[in-house]
Task: inverse folding
């Protein structure tokens, strides 16, 4: 009798996993970038910066970055940037100029692999100031363990 219950439990778990897979995949899909209120941030102009102009010590940049992240990035990259495995864990980006470049290039241009959009291009949809504010907020988070 316990072997039958064990097999039934395994079948149930498998069915739940299979049935929830389409929901998980679709939830990760079509993200529409949202504008961000950047009032209070130093204007950066039209020329794109290669490195982050804001400091993690700037509370306005950090707060705007957190709001912008939660509005535009958390759906795929996870709450508090703790990825669930579908998208890169942004807490793992290197600090400094190298990390800035790793961050800003795909954020501006998006990520497309094999013709499928994995991340939308935010250039033209989100201000440079908002993108760098997100990076600034990310720099305040502890690295994953």
Result:
């Amino acid at each position: 009798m316990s072997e039958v219950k064990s097999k039934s439990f395994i079948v149930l778990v498998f069915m739940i996993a299979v049935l929830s897979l389409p929901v998980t995949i679709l939830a990760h899909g079509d993200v529409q970038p949202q504008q961000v209120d950047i009032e209070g941030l130093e204007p950066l102009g039209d020329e794109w910066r290669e490195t982050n102009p804001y400091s993690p010590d700037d509370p306005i940049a950090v707060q705007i970055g957190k709001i912008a992240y939660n509005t535009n990035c958390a759906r795929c990259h996870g709450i508090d940037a703790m990825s669930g495995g579908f998208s890169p864990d942004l807490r793992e980006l290197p600090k400094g100029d190298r990390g800035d470049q790793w961050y800003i290039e795909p954020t501006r241009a998006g990520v497309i692999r094999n013709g499928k959009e994995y991340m939308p291009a935010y250039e033209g949809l989100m201000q440079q100031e908002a993108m760098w504010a997100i990076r600034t907020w990310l720099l305040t988070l502890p690295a994953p363990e």
Remarks:
- The radius of gyration is 19 Å.
- Confidence is low (pLDDT under 50) at residues 21-29.
- Helices lie at 2-27, 59-72, 74-77, 96-109, 128-139.
- The longest helix spans residues 2-27.
